[in-house]
Structure prediction request, 346 residues.
Amino acid sequence: MAFLELQGLDKRYDDLTAVADFSLSVTKGEFVCLLGPSGCGKTTTLQMVAGFTPPTRGHIVLDGRDITNDKPSQRGLGIVFQSYALFPHMTVADNVGFGLEMRSVALTDRRQRVADTLALVHLAPMASRFPRELSGGQRQRVALARALVIQPPVLLLDEPMGALDAKLREEMQIELRALQRRVGITTLMVTHDQAEAMTLADRVVLMNKGRIEQVERPFEMYENPNGRFSSTFLGKANVIEGHTVDGVVAANGHRLPRGEGSAAGEVDYIVRPEKMEFSTTGAFVRGRISARVFLGNHWLFQVDTPLGLLQITQANIGLPQAAEGDEVGLAWSANHARIVPRGSAS
Prediction:
């Protein structure tokens, strides 16, 4: 049963539609990421849930109660911003306890809840420090503790790791996911980072131009994109334009195995780079390697072919199989190809 329901939300600014017909049901304890490029409407959606931005149309229902017209303070939601918005003149403990003080929680109870929450985020020894004395990761955990200490029904996260460097960001993603599971809190998070969404989310809501493109678990969305946009935004993908003929896909004079999907007529034929392999026999298309890039744990090749520029990746288990300028054949398993209507969800 849905714990948080967003029902047909629209947000319009004069002639601009920021969010259109957004509907989503979130179960209790679920971690959902709103993913998409800048300007796709994900932050506007989060702000409508938080109460900072009123929807033009639609309803927000939390645990059976319509909160669409409630003020932010009446909703009782926990919110963490990208900037963390910590009070620089307050200690860690005072920052975390501020929301409880505003709710007139008794001092003894307030101190205990602050101590318990700081222990939860592994910051108990930092209670008397000021934000300027903390690292970026520690400041983020203070912001999380401040949101969690009020025991909100829903935690809203707006690009909470955007200010962290790559290594710390990866560490904090794992820590945040573990914390969310321990607490069991329903979480709605905004991110433009595909890896972050796949790491954290139970489900990903992929948005584009104010609308939902696809809602799915990360693995399912990656393996079964519903169109060109989904396939190219969530990871890399080779998208080949073709049309179906006698159970196969024809593309620029090449016959490709049918693959997964029931689309007919003009189609987009999608294969992930890691699903392709170099082949001396049984290749579906041949081409010449125009670029080879070393990316640490894998090699990336770009191959000029009659089907266009295709990408193939190989795990780094030693020296690469081919070099720039080599002519190669490319093959893949039919069940690794996804066929969708041309231009769908784009």
